[in-house]
Amino acid sequence: MNLSPKQRDVLERYGLAMALTGLALLIRALLPVPVGTTIYQLPLAAVVLSGWLGGRGPGLLATSCSVAVLWYWFIPPVGTWEIAPEFMLALCIFVALCLLLTELGEARWRVKRALEASERQFRLMAETVPEVLFLQSVQPAQLLYVSPRYEEIWGRAVGDLKNSMTGWLDAIHPDDEGAVRSTYQRWLSGEGGSRIDATFRIVRPDGETRWIRGRGSLIRDEQGKPYRGSGVAADITDEKHTQDALAAAQAELRARQEMLDLAQKAARAVAFDWHIGARESENSWSPDLEAMYGLDPGAFDRTFEGWKKLVHPDDWPSVKVAIRRAQQTGDIAAEYRVIYKDGSVHWLQAKGRMFSDAEGRPDRMVGFMIDITDWKHAEEELRATEARFRTFVDHAADAFYLMDEQLRIVDVNRQACQSLGWNREQLIGMHPREFDVGLDEASIVRLAQRTAAGEITTFETRHRRRDGSEFPVEIRTATFRQAGKLFYLSLGRDITERKRAEERLREQEGALQTARIELARVSRITTLGELSAAIGHEVSQPLGAMIASVGACTRWLAAEPPNIAEARAVLDNIAADSQRAREIIARIRALTKRQLPRKELLDVNRKVRDVLQLADHELRSHEILLRTELDETLPHVTGDRVQLQQVLLNLIMNAIDAMRGIGDRPRALTIASGRDGADSVLVEVRDSGTGLDPKGAERLFEAFYTTKAGGVGIGLSIARSIVEAHGGRLWAGPNEPHGAIFRFSLPVAEDEQ
Amino acid sequence: MTDDRPVVFVVDDDPSMRRSLDSLLRSVSLDVHLFASAQEFMHAERRDAPGCLVLDVRLPGMSGLTFQQELAKAGIALPIIFISGHGDVPMTVRAMKAGAVEFLTKPFDDQVLLDAIDAAIERDRARRRDAASLADLKARYRGLTEREREVMQLVVTGRANKQIAADLNLSLVTVKVHRGQVMRKMLAKSVAELVRMADRLGLPASVQPRGHTKV
User: Fold this and answer.
1) Which of A13, A312, A329, B91 has a 20 to 30 A CA-CA distance from B18?
2) Which among B23, B105, B114 is the nearest to A569, CB-wise?
3) Going edge to edge, which strands form the sheet with A470-482?
4) Among partner residues B16, B26, B113, which is closest to A580 by beta-carbon distance?
5) Which of A532, A540, A557 to mutate to test the interface with B (most CBs of B within 10 A)?
6) Residues A502, A499: Cα–Cα separation, whole Å
7) Using an 8 Å Cβ cutoff, are A55 and A94 in contact?
8) Orientation angle between helical segments A5-30 and A41-54, nearest 10 degrees
9) Looking at beta carbons, which residues of chain B come within 8 Å of A552?
């Protein structure tokens, strides 16, 4: 059964009255007390309760029911509607009493109803206003009421505040908390007046910050002591933001205004708003604008015709074009000259919008005028400078490439176009990889990085012309910054001629080198020849004398009779001559001893490299595959630089000679260095040549032994004597599978052992 | 007494070489004269006998080759045997061209030197004989009269007597007489011999007949 609250209320109240009355009468009926005046007590109580709880209606219902039942069943004669006169008074008093009490109940009930309604309205209000309402006691400080809006704004449960009066303070933003707490405490103490008004931030559990404005006032008791505090707390986050935005917008507006003023001043720009033909339009031609045209204030007649006269006749055609365009597009953009009264010519630039009337005639023009005379002059100056610079750059012998940060060509000079065969428009936008065939992408990037790091890079590469032909270039690249952007400037020089010259030089040097080696060889042989001739002459002298003496002696002894005296004299001569020969040999030995190696610390590997460099041309011209296996940790040896070089050169030249006729296998020469025990350094020269003749191997190091057609046969013997003079050894053995190995060892320098 | 024993001059700056050569040459009975330098040789008094000069190419002050030229200039026609510590081909050629007999390189075999010396002495002897007969011839030529020399000159150039008579504007008989005198004085047995003699004397092989024609 659906009942409205009101119906239920009525039903409950009247039901309660009926029930109470019934119950009272039933109890009285069942009581073993004789019927008398006592019958009124219980029904009266029921009536009083009904009236108290239910108001007048139920009270009256209870009264009527009680009277009816009492009259019929309790008042004699029982069971009839008749009444004994002696009971009449009592009944009347009962009725009167019931009515009175009912009225009293009604009055209380009304007050209660009104209170309830008022409270309902308060709650309704408190719960619907967007602010948080609160009421608190001061002593002890305890929250009495907080409207549910609290939960919404603070993001916390109202229940949490039951125990802690200051719980709401915990949510306050740390920056504001101190100030709010002290203000709040002062307010509660009543010292700072009754009112409080504080704006602060809170931090919700979800992290959101809100701006709160709390206002409240104190209620004081009779002694004037603070007794209750109440107030509202409003979420003013949105207002705050709006305010901030507004303030920012205002500041922005102010700044813009200032900037505009500044810009206008700096650019010497003057705004115009010209209602064409509206002579009376006072604000359309300001004195500033007139000054810009070189006019005195108010001198302009403000007609289109008048304005036309101000424009330089030469510029009028272009202005007309600009006007036509403005009529079509609405955009004004024109540059023209005006001639001042003093004869000076000024360039003006107009930018703005044009509005036309219904017939399409220009009606109003709004925009800015700028005197660009100085700019024009600067521009002309710049153009002239640029033209000069371009002429200069175009006539440079080197090709210029200006590239942006992505290495895209931004500009080139004429030389660049000529050297590559593309025109300037084609080259602009190209990347070096499109014509550089000497460098791969990675190398280009690496070079660009090095250049960007501030290095001026110089490198050689090859460029490909449009027709596909290539030429060598030397590129020098540097970077510079302009307007915050990085640019690469590359200068390319065609080095075809230089390369050719270098090649020629190299060839000449090669020939020179060969000649030098040949000369060294020849001079060695010649020196040896002269030396042996000198030795021969020296020795032949006593030897010749001795032979002659022996001949003489023989003859003196063969004579008849033998001439012993002469023979003896001759023998004395022979003895003297042989003594002389011995002295000569001793002298030569002393001579060679004096040429003993100069002692210096030598790096064997370095010597090897030096010699290979000397023999480079020979190696290349004989197509010999060179390999080095050098132990870089070798200690130094002591010895004569030139002599060791001679030994190495000799072994290498021998190896080259030995491989001269080899065609069926690679001509491989390997130079290896390493340690030979703790105190020796070993050098090996391995070839893949004809190898050693086992029979000749033992005689290899003898002087004047040779297997070569044009050889003298002293190289190896000299080499061996040099090595042995250094305290080392030189020996040979077969190489596998072909050729020979020559090895020599040298003692490690003493202080390096 | 005239000593016809061959003489050998040794010019060598090396004393031991000089000593050895001295002993060697003496052992074969040669008359040996030793000199340490070219100057010493030039200033010494030399015995006139067939001989030769043994010369070291390298001499102090003057090289052997220069010395050879000096000797030729001085009219000393001794055959020269060069000995050298080291002979090279150009030097040898120069020496031989200038008239050296032999060019020996030290150390040379003693017998080779002795053979060379023998050969040189023999050559000198021949030269000397040659020189002696020329001197004799010159003396005979000097014994001719002016006219006889003219006739001899024309005879050796192959002119007949008549032509000579015409050339010299003489009678045929006079020419014949002069011719007989020439043949006798010059000890020439035939015209051919006379021609050889004229050749040795260095007379002109032909004369211009007109030069002697009297107008």
Assistant:
1) B91
2) B23
3) A409-412, A399-403, A485-494, A470-482, A457-464
4) B16
5) A540
6) 5
7) no
8) 170
9) 20, 23-24, 26-27, 110
Cα–Cα distance measured from residue A84 to residue A697, given in angstroms and rounded to the nearest whole number:
178
**A570 contacts in chain B (CB < 8 Å):** 20, 23
Beta-carbon contacts of A132 under 8 Å, excluding residues fewer than 6 positions away, are A146, A147, A149, A150, A153, A154, A232, A233, A234
In whole angstroms, give the CA distance from residue A556 to residue A568: 9
Contacts of A118 (CB under 8 A, 6+ apart): none
Q: Could you write out the DSSP letters of every residue in A78-102?
A: TTSS---HHHHHHHHHHHHHHHHHH
CA distance A750 to B11: 58
| Dihedral Cα A410, A413, A418, A424, nearest 10 deg | 40
d(CA B210, CA B167): 7
Distance of alpha carbon A462 from alpha carbon A433, whole angstroms: 11
Report DSSP letters for A97-162, one per residue.
HHHHHHHHHHHHHHHHHHHHHHHHHHHHHHHHSSSEEEEEETTTTEEEEE-THHHHHH-S-GGGGT
Predicted pLDDT of residue B87: 59
| Model pLDDT, residue A303 | 74
CA atoms in the 13 A half-sphere facing the CB of A471: 19
- Chain mean position to CA B41: 20
Vertex B12 angle, CA B11 and B13, to 5°: 130
pLDDT at B211 (0 to 100):
44
A→B interface, C-beta within 8 Å? 533, 536-537, 540-553, 555-556, 559, 563, 566, 569-570, 573, 576-577, 580
* C-alpha closest to that of A687 among A715, A660, A716, A705: A660
pLDDT at A594: 47
Residue B33: band (very low, low, confident or very high) from pLDDT cuts 50, 70, 90: very high
Alpha helices in B61-109 (DSSP H): 64-73, 89-97
pLDDT at residue A279, as a whole number: 52
Rounded distance between C-alpha atoms, residue A181 and residue A187, angstroms: 10
CA A431 to chain centre: 24
Contacts by B180-189 with C-beta closer than 8 Å and gap 24+?
B181/B144, B181/B145, B181/B148, B182/B144, B182/B148, B182/B151, B182/B152, B182/B155, B185/B140, B185/B143, B185/B144, B185/B148, B186/B137, B186/B140, B186/B141, B186/B144, B186/B152, B187/B140
The tokens describing A357, both together, are 């009337």
- Average pLDDT on B148-162 reads 88
Quick one: pLDDT at residue A437? 87
Q: In what helix (H) or strand (E) does residue A254 lie, and over which residues does it extend?
A: helix A237-266
Query: Which residues of chain A fall below pLDDT 50?
Result: 281-283, 594, 712
CB contact under 8 A, A566 and B83: no
β-pair partners for A395: none
Locate A471 and state its tokens. 């030429």
Which one is predicted more confidently, A646 or B128? B128
Complex ipTM, two decimals? 0.71
Q: Which residues contact A656 (CB under 8 A, 6 or more apart)?
A: A615, A618, A619, A622, A624, A669, A687
Side-chain-side CA neighbours of B180 within 13 Å: the count stands at 6
Q: What is the mean pLDDT of residues B89-114?
A: 80
Residue pointed to by tokens 């023009």: A365
Rounded to whole angstroms, the Cα distance separating A492 from A505 reads 23
In 3D space, the residue among A432, A395, A418 whose CA is nearest the CA of residue A467 turns out to be A418
Partnered with residue A201 across adjacent β-strands are A211
| Gap between the Cα atoms of A686 and A655, Å rounded | 8
The whole-model pTM stands at: 0.35
Asked whether the beta carbons of B201 and B149 are under 8 A apart, the reply is no
Order of all β-strands in the sheet with A209-220: A142-146, A132-137, A226-235, A209-220, A195-203
Which amino acid is residue B103, in one-letter code?
A: F
C-alpha A479/C-alpha A490 separation (Å) is 9
Two structure tokens written together for A225: 């002591």
